[in-house]
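In response to the reviewer comment on reproducibility (Comment 2.3), we provide here a single inverse folding case reported in full, input and output, so that an independent group could reproduce the run without further information from us. The structure tokens appear first.
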């Protein structure tokens, strides 16, 4: 089987409206607010006082605790979870993905707790791009992307024409169509990251989560990836959450920043509000210069220890 050469419209999330008397389902664009107001838009993603602790076992104290953290994200928004190593970024991402169940609080995707979704529904709603995507066997790029259709299929069945078209479209969305027939172990790091992102898009998710996606990429590939994410959020109305320690990239491309330090959420808001020099110097333990660029976004320079 080979990928289709036809131009296929970019896949986008499908939203459903609950009929009168029917409970809202994942994907509902509008749900009834807690105040009883019908038709009011609600955040797609709600992290409400979510916490988590890694236990060393027995009666020993927790090895690491992510304290209660809250933020909300709407359709089309890109949120950066920012902080140095061991600040709790990946733990928070796993809570959002539903991989971990919160010790307290909850994480809601369109009103449903992510940790309580069955694995198939979760994979259809949430796509996760990890730091490293190991190749278990040799495959071409289009075959790798086709794996993103697994949550929609049945066991022991071949991919449908629709699956192949969606995979081809996902490659085009990230400007990787020319890589379709290339072997995954023969492409560059930046090209591989685009193909991995295409596999996530082939899931047609509502929520896209990326853990340190710019790791091991040169600066050109980093900028290209973030510009792609920014465009995908705007065009397809994805909600995107990116874990990063890259101050400059988060400041330039994120709508919101969640700043973590040693398991504590210190501040949440637009980059210009979060990027206070004294606060960032405390978190990243280095001397910084912070100024607003012509677009109103903060620019950060490292001055040294």
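Designed residues, in position order:
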């Amino acid at each position: 089987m080979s990928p289709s050469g036809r131009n296929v419209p970019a896949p986008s999330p499908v939203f459903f409206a609950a009929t009168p008397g029917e409970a809202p389902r994942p994907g509902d664009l509008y749900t009834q607010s807690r105040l009883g107001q019908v038709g009011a838009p609600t955040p797609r993603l709600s992290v409400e006082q979510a916490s988590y602790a890694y236990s060393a076992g027995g009666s020993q104290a927790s090895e690491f605790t992510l304290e209660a953290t809250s933020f909300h994200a709407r359709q089309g928004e890109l949120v950066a979870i920012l902080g140095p190593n061991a600040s709790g970024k990946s733990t928070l991402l796993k809570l959002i993905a539903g991989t971990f169940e919160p010790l307290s609080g909850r994480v809601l995707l369109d009103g449903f707790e992510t940790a309580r979704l069955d694995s198939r529904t979760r994979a259809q709603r949430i796509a996760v791009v990890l730091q490293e995507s190991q190749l278990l066997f040799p495959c071409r790029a289009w075959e790798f992307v086709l794996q993103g259709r697994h949550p929609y299929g049945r066991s022991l069945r071949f991919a449908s024409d629709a699956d192949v078209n969606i995979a081809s479209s996902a490659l085009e969305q990230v400007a990787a169509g020319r890589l379709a027939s290339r072997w995954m172990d023969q492409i560059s790091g930046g090209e591989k990251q685009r193909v991995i992102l295409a596999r996530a898009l082939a899931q047609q998710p509502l929520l896209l989560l990326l853990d340190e996606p710019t790791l091991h990429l040169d600066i050109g590939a980093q900028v290209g990836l973030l510009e792609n994410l920014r465009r995908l959020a705007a065009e397809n109305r994805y909600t995107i959450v990116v874990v990063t320690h890259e101050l400059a990239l988060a400041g330039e491309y994120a709508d919101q920043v969640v700043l973590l330090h040693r398991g504590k959420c210190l501040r949440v808001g637009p980059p210009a509000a979060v990027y206070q020099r004294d606060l960032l110097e405390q978190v990243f333990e280095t001397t910084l210069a912070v100024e607003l660029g012509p677009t109103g976004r903060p620019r950060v320079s490292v001055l040294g220890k």
